[in-house]
Every structure is written in C-alpha cells, then in structure tokens.
Amino acid sequence: MVPLYDKQIPWTGVEALYDLINGRYIVSGLRNEEKSPIEFGFPAQAADYTPTALRKAGVR
Description:
Number of strands: 4
Order of helices and strands: EEEEH
Largest sheet: 2 strands, antiparallel
C-alpha cells in the first residue's frame, strides 16, 4: 500500500506473485504506459456501474 496523503486515500503499488513450484510469475499494478493520470474525486452515480453502462464504456 502507498498512502497518497494529498488525496487522503491508500493506494496499491506494484504487486508481484511468484509460483516457486512452476517457476512462473505475474506482476500487476504497473502504470508506466498510462495515457493519462488517474482521476480521483470525479462525480459518479450507481447507474454508471450497471452491466449495460460498463459494457458501453468498455474498449475492445
């Protein structure tokens, strides 16, 4: 966890998971290719998170 004091929230940093038996790993939370910064505090409504609204907002 990374505390973002200016936003008053905790945030996740990079996470790496290792499978020692199979020799595999995954890394998530990398933000080096984001096109724009993360926007905090935007107004949202419950209707923005319905399956239909999420389907419309999705990128294929």
